Amino acid sequence: MNDDTPLDFTIVNKRLWNAKVDHHVKSPMYDVPGFLEGADSLNSIELDLLGDIQGKRIIHLQCHFGLDTLSLARRGAQQVTGVDFSEKAIAKAEELAKKTNLTASTKFICCNIFDLPDPEELFDIVFASYGTICWLPDINHWARILSNHLKPGGFSLLVEFHPFLDIFDEAYTRIENSYFNHGPIVCDCQGTYADRNAPIRNKSMEWCHPVSSVIQALIQNGLKIEVFKEFDYSPYDALLNSVKIADKCYQIKGLQGKIPIIYAIKASKPIS
């Protein structure tokens, strides 16, 4: 029996994301050269909801190779901890931290977030964004991690692709799947959203978490919903059949302005 029988989501998805790292680092979408020259990788959606992060302690879950983690540090956070299960991504993040002289204000941990140890000191902000929770089978466990890492008075911020997109086929031409979570969606992946021609061939395992499930998980784990927003665009050209509407604003051809593409939830941890 090989290690994919039965499929283990950590093994399958880590193999996929390790394969993506080198192609993403080289891709125009991530624009690493621009970042090294001072460009900010964060978008207005998350920046508006994060507010002033000067002096804050932040943990960034599923940080990939760390551009957003490092951008948070550049914006004045006291300490930013990036977490990702891809050892190739974490190695690249640590390399970029050295190149940008941000090693003193950043730290990177290589592990599945479900295996995160209890923090020595709680965080002001728990941050996760753009293509994170779909790789996790247990949304309640995820919300418990957020709550366990937040200090009273702190908040979590999730900015994520809307699960409504998951009902469609990859080209968004027909309805193909359920909006509700009926177990893992197992796919054979070719290429990657940042480079469709990349020689990547691997399986993936994803889960559709309806927005109601995410909100309810946060509430059940002691967090108070402060903000919930939906957006009809993506700041990244990461979807097939996309149309550029404006700078950092992409919609799906034929569905412009008709469906949600991104949503954001800000939830606080009560002081008492």
UniProtKB/TrEMBL annotation:
Coiled-coil positions: none
CDD domains reported in the protein's UniProt record: AdoMet_MTases
Source species of the chain: Adineta ricciae (Rotifer)
Residues spanning the signal sequence: none
Domain Methyltransferase: 60-154
Gene3D superfamilies in UniProt: Vaccinia Virus protein VP39
Protein name: Methyltransferase domain-containing protein
Pfam families hit by this protein: Methyltransf_25
InterPro entries: Methyltransf_25, SAM-dependent_MTases_sf
Any one GO MF annotation of this record: methyltransferase activity
